[in-house]
Specification:
The structure holds two protein chains of two kinds.
Chain A: H1 3-22, H2 27-49, H3 65-84, H4 92-100, H5 105-135, H6 145-173, H7 179-190, H8 200-203, H9 208-213, H10 217-229, H11 234-270
Helix pairs in contact in A: 1-5, 2-3, 2-5, 3-5, 3-6, 3-10, 6-10, 6-11, 10-11
Chain B: E1 6-17, E2 30-34, E3 37-50, E4 55-59, H1 66-73, E5 81-86, E6 89-90, H2 95-99, E7 102-105, H3 118-128, H4 136-146, H5 162-174, E8 180-184, H6 192-209, E9 213-218, H7 221-227, E10 230-235, E11 238-243, H8 245-251, E12 256-263, H9 267-274, E13 279-288, E14 291-298, H10 301-314, E15 318-325, H11 329-337
Parallel strand pairs in B: 4-9, 4-10, 7-8, 8-9
Antiparallel strand pairs in B: 1-3, 1-5, 2-3, 5-6, 10-11, 12-14, 12-15, 13-14
Helix pairs in contact in B: 3-4, 4-5, 8-11
The chains are: A mainly alpha, B alpha/beta.
C-alpha cells in the first residue's frame, strides 16, 4: 500500500473524530479551560515546593521546579493518551466493520490516535508553555526543539506498544485489563513526572525502586525531554538514554503487534469480536 | 480460476461455550460436552457454490448458521475446518484480497457514528476502502440516490429511523463497487414499499445490470421466491436443499393437494378414493345438492390425479373442476426444516 493510501486512511479516522468532537460545541472549550487551570495549579505547586527541590534540580541546569512540572505534564499527557487510546480500537461496535475494510492494524491504530494526538499537540503546546512563560518565568530560549520532538515521537511509539498490549488484554477479557493501570500508577509514583528518579534513593537506599523506575519508558522520556528543554542534544548526555528507549521499543512494539494479532485470531475463532 | 464466485468446501464451524446451557438451542447442529466446555456445531460440512452474477438466497430458521456463514465469508470469523473461497481467494489466508472483493450488510448499527451525518459516515468508509479520490463524491451521490437516502444524507446518523439506517447499510456495502455482495437480511426493518423497491434494485440494478454476485439471507419466503436464481435451505448447520426456487418446491411436490369439484359423487366413491394408492388424506370441504368439493392430499399428483378422476367418472359422476396446489416455498421450507411439525 502506498504512503498516500496510508495517509488517506489515517486522515479518514482523523476527520471522523474531528467531526464527532466538534459536534459537541463546548467540549473543546472546557477541555482547554481545564488544562489552563491545571497548568496554573502545577505552576503554583512548583513555586511552593521549589525550596525543597533545590538539590534535585541541580541535574536540570537552571530550570525551576514550576517549569519541571509543566514540561513534565505536557509529555505526561502525550504518554497517557498513547497508552490509553489504543483500547479505543477494540470497541465492539466498530471493530468488526473496520476489520472488514482493507485497513491494516497499524494504520487502524495510527488513525484512531491521530485526532487525540493532534488535539493534545494543539492544546498542550498552546496552554502549558503560555502559562509557564507568562506567569512562572519559564525560559524557552535554550530549548532544543528537534531533540524534544524526536523524544516525543519515541515516547509516543514506546507507549503505543504497551497501549496495544492493553488493548489485547481487553480484547480477550472484554472488561479487565491491568496493563494501563500498572503503567499509570507506576508512572505517577516513580517515573519522574513529579520528581527526578534520584529522589527515590532517599526512600529506598538499596536502589531497587530506582532500577525499577528505569525499566519504564516514561522515566527515559521525562528525563530526556527536560534535558532537551535546557538545550542538551542527542549526541551528548542523552545518547545512552535514547538507546535504552529504542531497546524498549524494539522489544515491546513487535511483541505487542504479535499479541494483538493473536488475540484477534482467537476472537475470530471464538466469534467474540463484536462482544462487549 | 474457480467457476464459482463464492464456494465453500466442507465448511465447518464449532463454537465452545464455557457455561453449559440448560436447554438445547433451537437450530444449533449439535452440542458435545467436553471437559473444558460445550462444543456447538454451527456449520456442518457446508458445501455451496454461487456462480458469478447469481442471486443466491440462503434461508433457514434462527440459529441455523446463516449469519455465521456470512461472517466467515466476510473474514471476521475463522472456520474450524474446511474452506471458504471468494473469487478463488481463501478467506483465511488471503483475507485482504477477499475484503477488496466484497461488500456486506451485517447486524444493525455496527460501525456507524451517531454524530456524523450519513454522508460523512459513508465518506469515512469510502476513504478506508480507498475508493478512487476523484470518484468519491460521484459514488456517494450515486449510492445515496440508489438507496433513496439523498434527502436524509445530511442528517446525523443517530436521528435516522431504523429503515433509513438499513438503507445506509446497503449504501455502505455497494459504495466501493465490490463484485460480490453479502447481505444478511437486507430488507429487515424496511417498510413494504421500500423493501419492494430495494428487492427490485438488488435484482435489476446490482445483479442483472451490473452483474454482481449476491448472497443474501432472508426469512421472507416471498422475497426469496421473487428474487433468487437459486436458494439454499440451511438447518442445524447443514444445507438440506439447494436448487432453483421451483426446484425446491418440487422437492416436496409429491405431497401436493388436489381440489376436485364434481357432480353426483356417492359415499361409496368417496370411500374408494380414500383407499386409493397415493392418497394420504381426503376431506369434503363443501357440499350443496349433488355438487361436492373434495380436497385430497396426494403423493405424485400427476399419477394419482387422473386415477381419482377416472374413479369418479366410472362411478357415474361428472368432474367440473380440478385444481392442483403445489406447496409454496414457505411450505417447502417448513417441511424441509421440520418447523411445520413444531
Amino acid at each position: 500500500m502506498s504512503c498516500l493510501s496510508t495517509f488517506r486512511q489515517v486522515f479518514a479516522f482523523y476527520r471522523r473524530d474531528l467531526v464527532n468532537a466538534t459536534s459537541y460545541k463546548l467540549n473543546i472549550f472546557f477541555q482547554a479551560m481545564g488544562m489552563f487551570v491545571w497548568a496554573f495549579v502545577l505552576g503554583m505547586l512548583g513555586k511552593i515546593a521549589a525550596p525543597a527541590m533545590t538539590s534535585m534540580m541541580r541535574n536540570y541546569g537552571d530550570m525551576d521546579y514550576s517549569t519541571f512540572l509543566l514540561v513534565g505534564m505536557i509529555f505526561n499527557n502525550f504518554l497517557n493518551e498513547s497508552l490509553m487510546h489504543p483500547r479505543a480500537i477494540v470497541n465492539p461496535g466498530s471493530l468488526e466493520r473496520i476489520l472488514m475494510s482493507p485497513v491494516n492494524i497499524p494504520v487502524f491504530v495510527m488513525g484512531t490516535l491521530s485526532y487525540p494526538m493532534f488535539m493534545l499537540l494543539l492544546l498542550n503546546l498552546a496552554i502549558f508553555p503560555t502559562v509557564g512563560v507568562l506567569f512562572f518565568s519559564m525560559k524557552i530560549s535554550a530549548v532544543n526543539w528537534s531533540t524534544l520532538a524526536f523524544i516525543l515521537l519515541l515516547g509516543i511509539i514506546s507507549m503505543w506498544g504497551f497501549g496495544i498490549i492493553s488493548a489485547t488484554v481487553q480484547l480477550v477479557t472484554k472488561r479487565w485489563e491491568p496493563v494501563s493501570w500498572f503503567f499509570q500508577v507506576f508512572s505517577a509514583a516513580i517515573s519522574g513526572m513529579w520528581y527526578d528518579p534520584s529522589v527515590l534513593l532517599t526512600i529506598d537506599p538499596s536502589g531497587f525502586i530506582q532500577k525499577l523506575a528505569w525499566c519504564l519508558p516514561q522515566t527515559y522520556v521525562f528525563y530526556m525531554q527536560r534535558q532537551a528543554f535546557i538545550g542538551r542534544d542527542l549526541t551528548s548526555l542523552l545518547f545512552p538514554y535514547v538507546l535504552n528507549l529504542f531497546l524498549i521499543i524494539i522489544i515491546v512494539f513487535p511483541v505487542s503487534m504479535k499479541l494483538f494479532l493473536a488475540a484477534l485470531r482467537k476472537c475470530k475463532v471464538q466469534g467474540s469480536l463484536g462482544w462487549e | 480460476m474457480t467457476e464459482y464466485a463464492i464456494e465453500t468446501v466442507n465448511l465447518t464451524k464449532e463454537f465452545t461455550r464455557k457455561t453449559p446451557i440448560s436447554k438445547p438451542n433451537v437450530g444449533l447442529a449439535c452440542s458435545v460436552n467436553e471437559g473444558h466446555g460445550e462444543r456447538f456445531l454451527v456449520l456442518d460440512e457446508v458445501n455451496l457454490g454461487v456462480k458469478p452474477g447469481e442471486l443466491f438466497g440462503l434461508m433457514g430458521p434462527n440459529g441455523a448458521g446463516k449469519t455465521t456463514l456470512i461472517k466467515i465469508l466476510c473474514t471476521i470469523l475463522a472456520p474450524t475446518r474446511g474452506e471458504a473461497l471468494v473469487n478463488g481467494f481463501n478467506v483465511e489466508c488471503e483475507s485482504k484480497r477477499v475484503k477488496s472483493q466484497i461488500g456486506a450488510v451485517l447486524d444493525f448499527d455496527h460501525g456507524w457514528y451517531g454524530r456524523l451525518t450519513g454522508r460523512q459516515n459513508l465518506r469515512f468508509y469510502a476513504d478506508l476502502s480507498l475508493v478512487p479520490g476523484g470518484e468519491v463524491r460521484h459514488r456517494l451521490n450515486n449510492v445515496l440516490e440508489l438507496t433513496e437516502m439523498s434527502q436524509k444524507a445530511d442528517d446525523w446518523y443517530q436521528k435516522l429511523s431504523t429503515g433509513e439506517r438499513r438503507r445506509l447499510d446497503i449504501a455502505r456495502a455497494i459504495l466501493p463497487d465490490p463484485s460480490i455482495l453479502l447481505l444478511d437480511e437486507p430488507t429487515l426493518g424496511i417498510d413494504v414499499a421500500s423493501a419492494h423497491k430495494l428487492r427490485g434494485f438488488i435484482r435489476d440494478e446490482l445483479c442483472r445490470k451490473e452483474g454482481k454476485t449476491v448472497l443474501f439471507t432472508t426469512h421472507n419466503m416471498d422475497e426469496a421466491e421473487e428474487l433468487c436464481d437459486k436458494v439454499a435451505i440451511i438447518d442445524h448447520g447443514k444445507i438440506v436443499a439447494c436448487d432453483q426456487p421451483t426446484g425446491i418446491m418440487q422437492l416436496i411436490q409429491p405431497t401436493a393437494y388436489l381440489e376436485i369439484e364434481a357432480l353426483n359423487i356417492t359415499d361409496r366413491t368417496i370411500s374408494e378414493i380414500e383407499v386409493m394408492e397415493g392418497v394420504t388424506e381426503l376431506s369434503v370441504i363443501d357440499k350443496s345438492g349433488n355438487r361436492m368439493r373434495l380436497r385430497a392430499g396426494v403423493i405424485s399428483p400427476d399419477v394419482v390425479g387422473p386415477r381419482i378422476c377416472r374413479g369418479i367418472i366410472e362411478a357415474g359422476g361428472d368432474i367440473l373442476l380440478m385444481n392442483r396446489h403445489l406447496p409454496s416455498l414457505e411450505e417447502s421450507f417448513l417441511r424441509l426444516t421440520g418447523e411445520s411439525e413444531a
